[in-house]
């Protein structure tokens, strides 16, 4: 039996390095917008309550949303944590079906079209079975990767996630990366986001910063590895898009 689950899909950005002047999530791969592939995988994973966080040229993105997918605007765009903060009021005020009230929340990016429904199911199932505040989907990465690094403690448990721009040389040597896919218990997510600041090199509110807050409160954070690393590919350049096309 599937676990009732909702999701926040980050879809506010401009595809600056893609060329052109359209939202990144609306670039096409295999005849479908990048965002469309992510929404399809969420649907196949039985995720029923989905909210897209829109921003750049929001009207174009909203027009592409299937019936039933909610949206909220992020303006200005101040990072991934800020994007989820923008969705909070909708999650707390929307008239959810009874089975979705208080259900766990997936957070994922709208520019990762190769993510499978099985990966979404895995993060949901592990968070549930471990009664964890959060489950992170991680991936094996090369040393030169731009992915944030999963930093574990002496017991091998997740301690924090460091964005590569803020990582030390030692942290950059870690070969376990953050895909940007999470499943949170709702109360843990909002409680931790209340404490997140923007004291980092980008001046942004990172969603990754909720992890140490959860751990400091004695909440469990677990991780599951993505079996197929290509699923974690986010589309940032035309070369990325070409690679996605080859793997759809």
Characterise this structure.
With 248 residues, this protein is an alpha/beta fold. It has one domain (6-247): Spore Coat Polysaccharide Biosynthesis Protein SpsA, Chain A (Alpha-Beta Complex), CATH 3.90.550.10. It is built from eight helices and eleven strands. The strands form three sheets. Strands 5-4-1-6-10-7-11 form a seven-stranded mixed sheet, sandwiched between helices. Strand 2 (28-29) and strand 3 form a beta hairpin. Helix 6 packs across helix 7 (210-216). The two termini are 28 Å apart.
Per-chain topology:
Blueprint: E1 6-11, E2 28-29, E3 32-33, H1 34-44, E4 49-54, H2 58-64, E5 70-73, H3 80-93, E6 105-109, H4 117-129, E7 134-140, E8 149-152, E9 158-162, H5 169-172, E10 176-184, H6 186-193, H7 210-216, E11 221-225, H8 238-247
Parallel strand pairs: 1-4, 1-6, 4-5, 7-11
Antiparallel strand pairs: 2-3, 6-10, 7-10, 8-9
